[in-house]
Design brief:
The chain is mainly alpha-helical. The protein has three domains: about 50 residues; about 70 residues; about 45 residues, no CATH class. It is about 75% helix and about 0% strand. The chain has six helices and no strands.
Length: about 180
């Protein structure tokens, strides 16, 4: 009979059937799902006791609870330390994760340790030399930005960098001419 019925009428009846039946079916599916969930939970408890898995699950639950507490304690610790010292920042995992791990804690401490090491190294001769090189580099950049003509820049850069053994301008008058054959 639907062969003679126009397509728009068939589609209309399909939509009407879905409109009436879909809410009823969804409601019934929810009730069935709730029953399945409750029944599964009861059977899991009985089955775990029967098999002896209840002791393992209990130990596992305690371990997870301890891990959750350790994560909360670690997160609280690191966040308090950051509030105490404005120079400290948190790594991404410590700042944005509820599931902080031992590795995340280790990485956070390594990050903070690097700052302390950097400060200590600056006190050593190698660190002092690094500081001097950085200062000369910055001074050289300032010269380039603050002078207008090439000769003034070259002369100023030569004066600035000769202290550390860099010759900015090379005296080419002492170089011998290469003979062409």
């Amino acid at each position: 009979m639907s062969g003679n019925m126009p397509k728009y009428k068939v589609e209309h009846y399909e939509r009407k059937i879905r409109r009436h039946f879909d809410p009823l079916i969804e409601e019934q599916e929810l009730l069935v799902k709730q029953f399945k969930t409750d029944a599964t939970k009861r059977i899991v408890e009985k089955l775990s006791k029967k098999m002896g898995a209840d002791k393992i699950l209990s130990a596992f639950r305690k371990a997870e609870d301890m891990m959750k507490k350790a994560r909360q304690d670690a997160t609280t610790f690191f966040k308090k330390k950051v509030k105490q010292d404005d120079k400290k920042t948190l790594t991404y995992n410590v700042r944005n994760s509820d599931e902080i791990s031992y590795k995340d804690c280790e990485e956070q401490l390594q990050e903070w340790a690097k700052e302390l090491v950097d400060r200590e190294i600056r006190k050593r001769p190698e660190g002092e030399m690094l500081k001097q090189l950085e200062d000369v580099k910055q001074k050289s950049m300032d010269i380039v930005y603050e002078n207008g003509d090439d000769l003034a820049i070259a002369k100023a850069l030569n004066n600035c960098t000769q202290k550390i053994g860099i010759a900015w301008t090379i005296d080419t008058s002492k170089i011998k001419q290469i003979a062409s054959k």
